[in-house]
């Protein structure tokens, strides 16, 4: 029977995620103070809207997942709180930070003992998904806002470009961390080479950077139309999410919240939400985004060329073509990744996790480990019984991601 392995790379990603969390908090405070000192109250209001909206969204997910699990807590950090204290922390927008503290606790313990507890991988996954939601509801819009202000002020210089690239890298890193969290549930995880994560990080970096830059270019010349563009695009994407008939959350309200969130994520980047063949849906999505990026860059070129602004005409064309080309190059890297590094598993191969859940529920010895190696003739990880609800949520995402 195989067990989950928590290697040095996973521990490194957990620690680095904590560093990015603290850095993100510091940068948010710095940005808010800077806007206030500059008396840029409109920008400050938009920034606070992103920060507060994202925080409320993430806390809502955290609380819903606790409720789905009957408020069972697997770590000492979380267990020291009563239900009333846990509710208060979520109202104070601090719930996710205690989740992070719990993940750090089990990560250090698992790394030191060289043996991973079942809850370590599940808790790490939940945190990775919460960070992913926060990334696309706060960090991505915030980077678009910053780039828009920079373009409007004409403050393009190498240092500014490097800062923007660093922010985009943090977003791509969050996506990569979520990806590695999903791959933790694969058999023979030790074959997950670091190069696969590097390629995954790079193509996400190119796609996300191009998308965010096109939105910032458009917003810098036609800011009044930015809200209309987002709302119309989000409604269209929400419709397609609904047509996909997602089944991730355990309540109707939670499911619609999830669909609305996926529509928000799709506005910036692709995120698979249903099992089965995804080639057609992926092609349709990227075709839409390529057309949208081209349209936004084209409108920026037209606006810049019809007014005497700080860019010369050839430079605007080169910049617009470069943004679209970067997105296409990112798609090329994505194809290479899926051809060479992505584990394409069938639904039957992923049923080891499902079967463990069913066996544990039917077994009178529900507290004992179930030998999932008997399922499908392959050696699958064996999560303990208390993590079954985590397991159900994880199984859905794993089937969607690897089918």
Polypeptide structure, described:
It holds the Pfam family XK-related. With 403 residues, the chain is mostly helical. The chain contains 14 helices and no strands. Helices cover 74% and strands 0% of the residues. It has helices at residues 8-37, 41-68, 76-79, 83-91, 95-113, 118-153, 158-183, 194-221, 226-243, 252-268, 279-306, 313-340, 351-362, 388-402.
CA radius of gyration is 22 Å
**What is the N-to-C order of secondary-structure elements (H for helix, E for strand)?**
HHHHHHHHHHHHHH
Per DSSP, the total helix count is: 14
Q: Which regions are unreliable across 5 or more consecutive residues at pLDDT < 50? A: 351-389
- Helix coverage percent: over 70%
Total domains: 1
Q: Give the helix/strand class.
A: mainly alpha
Strand content: under 5%
Distance between the termini: 24 Å
The outline comes out as globular
* pLDDT averaged residue by residue: 77
The main pleated sheet reads as: none
- Extended strand count: 0
Short description:
Keywords: Cell membrane, Membrane, Transmembrane, Transmembrane helix. It is a multi-pass membrane protein. By secondary structure, the chain is mostly helical.
Keywords:
403 residues, mainly alpha, globular
Write the layout of secondary structure elements.
Elements: H1 8-37, H2 41-68, H3 76-79, H4 83-91, H5 95-113, H6 118-153, H7 158-183, H8 194-221, H9 226-243, H10 252-268, H11 279-306, H12 313-340, H13 351-362, H14 388-402
Helix pairs in contact: 1-2, 1-5, 1-7, 2-6, 5-6, 6-7, 6-8, 6-10, 7-8, 8-11, 8-12, 9-10, 11-12, 13-14
């Amino acid at each position: 029977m195989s067990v989950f392995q928590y290697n040095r790379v996973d521990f490194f990603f957990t620690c680095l995620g904590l560093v990015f969390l603290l850095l993100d908090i510091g940068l948010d405070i710095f940005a808010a103070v800077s806007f206030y000192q500059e008396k840029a109250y409109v920008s400050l209001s938009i920034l606070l809207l992103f920060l507060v909206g994202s925080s409320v969204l993430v806390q809502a997910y955290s609380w819903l997942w606790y409720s789905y699990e009957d408020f069972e807590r697997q770590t000492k950090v979380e267990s020291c709180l009563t239900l009333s204290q846990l509710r208060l922390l979520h109202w104070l927008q601090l719930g996710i930070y205690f989740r992070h503290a719990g993940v750090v606790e089990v990560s250090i313990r698992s790394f030191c003992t060289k043996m991973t507890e079942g809850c370590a991988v599940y808790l790490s996954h939940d945190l990775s998904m919460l960070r992913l939601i926060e990334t696309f509801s706060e960090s991505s819009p915030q980077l678009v806002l910053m780039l828009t202000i920079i373009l409007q002020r004409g403050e393009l210089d190498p240092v500014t470009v490097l800062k923007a690239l660093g922010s985009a890298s943090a977003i791509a890193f969050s996506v990569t961390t979520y990806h590695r969290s999903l791959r933790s549930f694969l058999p023979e995880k030790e074959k997950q080479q670091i190069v696969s994560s590097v390629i995954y990080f790079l193509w996400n970096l190119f796609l996300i950077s191009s998308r965010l830059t096109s939105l910032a270019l458009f917003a810098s010349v036609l800011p009044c139309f930015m809200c209309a563009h987002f709302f119309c695009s989000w409604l269209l994407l929400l419709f397609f999410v609904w047509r996909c008939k997602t089944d991730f959350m355990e309540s109707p309200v939670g499911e619609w919240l999830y669909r609305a969130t996926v529509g928000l994520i799709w506005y910036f980047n692709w995120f698979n939400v249903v099992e089965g063949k995804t080639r057609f849906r992926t092609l349709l999505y990227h075709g839409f985004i390529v057309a949208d990026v081209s349209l936004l860059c084209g409108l920026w070129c037209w606006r810049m060329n019809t007014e005497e602004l700080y860019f010369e005409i050839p430079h605007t064309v080169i910049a617009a073509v470069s943004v679209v080309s970067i997105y296409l190059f990112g798609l090329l890297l994505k194809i290479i990744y899926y051809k060479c590094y992505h584990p394409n598993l069938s639904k039957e191969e992923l049923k080891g996790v499902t079967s463990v859940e069913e066996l544990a529920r039917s077994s009178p010895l529900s507290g004992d480990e179930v030998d999932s190696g008997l399922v499908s003739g392959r050696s699958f990880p064996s999560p303990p019984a208390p993590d079954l609800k985590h397991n159900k949520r994880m199984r859905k995402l794993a089937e969607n991601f690897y089918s």
